[in-house]
């Protein structure tokens, strides 16, 4: 097997600070050209800001949504790139506008802030910011619900295996699903710790797993454990970040999942919002509302530079339809308890 092209900083470790920026690209040729050319400039910007404080390990991942891809690039879109599929259950997972994702990470928030400022200055009117989250590490990697978040993330060689497309023209790229969740902390904190632990599936204080036999089927850790037909667990790489504004009463978790195949993350989402078995949804959602949703593809680093030169023909034939979410016909992906 050929070595993978160098990915963007998808597999970088969890950081102390992160800034997530999602924007849309207006329908005009000048904007398209600006964004396209920026693909070759991003690495230099990251170096310019990051080299001022190398110990802060600044990184940035740039991803594109399905609708904008054929507007920007002649190169064919990745097979799994499609618009985020909204889910409607007792609670909804909305799809919200977003053509471009920037996932900026560093050990210091000032570097994230400076890079985002430079990116927006470079893109000017070619990028309309839709939403931004500035996340921070909270004590021992806890989310604002008070639980340690990220424990079961893959480690070592399992990270690229879970996050990066292994072969084909888009090898080394990654599919990112991003959602912003807002918590009702008063309601959550009204539960006793044992009730919270049964919702998450782990102990709050020491972070140990609660045995499956002691949990309801709606426990978060059970609904988000998915396997293939052979019973092999299918993993994603999560980069959740707490964020919020105490004065505004806003307390949230930014969910960002990188996957080699977006169908894996989508199965987890379906299990959470629709339930597995159906109806038995994830009770985190009684306390956490998803307010944004987007699916993006982050090409390999060298592919990103090549895309700067990949302008579509001036008068293109009808843009190819974004590929249907074939991955959703994932009879092969299921919760271990389903079969
Ligand atoms: C409000 C949003 C969310 C919060 C607060 C949250 C929190 C947590 C916590 C505390 C854990 C247990 C520790 C760990 O292994 O990380 C966990 C596990 C996990 N979560 Fe989430 N999560 C959220 C949303 C999501 C979403 C949207 C997905 C996927 C689409 C997801 C996928 C997972 C997975 C795969 C695990 C590991 C399960 C295991 O193997 O034990 N989470 N989450």
UniProtKB/TrEMBL annotation:
<dbReference type="Pfam" id="PF20628">
    <property type="entry name" value="Dyp_perox_C"/>
</dbReference>
<feature type="domain" description="Dyp-type peroxidase N-terminal">
    <location>
        <begin position="8"/>
        <end position="137"/>
    </location>
</feature>
<protein>
    <submittedName>
        <fullName>Putative iron-dependent peroxidase</fullName>
    </submittedName>
</protein>
<dbReference type="InterPro" id="IPR011008">
    <property type="entry name" value="Dimeric_a/b-barrel"/>
</dbReference>
<keyword id="KW-0408">Iron</keyword>
<dbReference type="GO" id="GO:0046872">
    <property type="term" value="F:metal ion binding"/>
</dbReference>
<feature type="compositionally biased region" description="Low complexity">
    <location>
        <begin position="308"/>
        <end position="329"/>
    </location>
</feature>
<dbReference type="InterPro" id="IPR006314">
    <property type="entry name" value="Dyp_peroxidase"/>
</dbReference>
<keyword id="KW-0560">Oxidoreductase</keyword>
<dbReference type="InterPro" id="IPR048328">
    <property type="entry name" value="Dyp_perox_C"/>
</dbReference>
<feature type="domain" description="Dyp-type peroxidase C-terminal">
    <location>
        <begin position="140"/>
        <end position="301"/>
    </location>
</feature>
<dbReference type="GO" id="GO:0020037">
    <property type="term" value="F:heme binding"/>
</dbReference>
<comment type="similarity">
    <text>Belongs to the DyP-type peroxidase family.</text>
</comment>
<dbReference type="GO" id="GO:0005829">
    <property type="term" value="C:cytosol"/>
</dbReference>
<feature type="region of interest" description="Disordered">
    <location>
        <begin position="308"/>
        <end position="339"/>
    </location>
</feature>
<dbReference type="InterPro" id="IPR048327">
    <property type="entry name" value="Dyp_perox_N"/>
</dbReference>
<keyword id="KW-0575">Peroxidase</keyword>
<keyword id="KW-0479">Metal-binding</keyword>
<dbReference type="Pfam" id="PF04261">
    <property type="entry name" value="Dyp_perox_N"/>
</dbReference>
<dbReference type="GO" id="GO:0004601">
    <property type="term" value="F:peroxidase activity"/>
</dbReference>
């Amino acid at each position: 097997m050929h070595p993978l092209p160098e990915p963007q900083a998808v597999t970088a470790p969890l950081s102390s600070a992160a800034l997530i920026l999602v924007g849309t690209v207006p329908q005009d040729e000048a904007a398209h050209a600006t964004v396209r050319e920026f693909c070759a400039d991003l690495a230099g910007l990251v170096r310019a800001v990051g080299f001022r404080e190398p110990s802060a390990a600044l990184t940035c991942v740039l991803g594109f949504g399905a609708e904008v891809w054929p507007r920007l690039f002649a190169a064919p879109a990745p097979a799994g790139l499609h618009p985020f599929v909204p889910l409607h259950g007792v609670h909804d997972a909305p799809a919200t506008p977003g053509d471009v994702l920037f996932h900026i990470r560093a050990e210091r928030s000032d570097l994230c802030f400076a890079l985002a400022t430079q990116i927006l200055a470079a893109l000017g009117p070619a990028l309309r910011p839709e939403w931004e989250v500035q996340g921070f590490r909270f004590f021992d990697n806890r989310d604002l619900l008070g639980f340690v978040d990220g424990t079961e993330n893959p480690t070592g060689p399992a990270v690229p295996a879970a996050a990066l497309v292994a072969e084909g023209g888009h090898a080394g790229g990654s599919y990112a699903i991003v959602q912003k969740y807002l918590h009702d902390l008063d309601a959550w904190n009204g539960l006793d710790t044992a009730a919270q632990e049964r919702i998450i599936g782990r102990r709050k204080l020491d972070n140990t797993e609660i045995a499956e036999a002691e949990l309801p089927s709606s426990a978060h850790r059970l609904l988000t454990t998915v396997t293939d037909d052979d019973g092999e667990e299918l993993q994603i790489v999560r980069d959740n970040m707490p964020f919020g504004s105490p004065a505004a009463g806003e307390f949230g978790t930014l969910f960002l999942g990188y996957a080699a195949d977006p169908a894996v993350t989508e199965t987890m989402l379906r299990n959470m919002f629709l339930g597995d078995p159906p109806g038995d949804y994830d009770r985190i959602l009684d306390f956490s509302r998803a307010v944004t949703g987007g699916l993006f593809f982050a090409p390999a680093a060298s592919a990103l530079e090549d895309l700067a030169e990949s302008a579509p023909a001036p008068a293109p034939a009808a843009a190819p339809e974004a590929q249907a979410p074939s991955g959703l016909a994932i009879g092969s992906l299921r919760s271990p308890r389903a079969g």
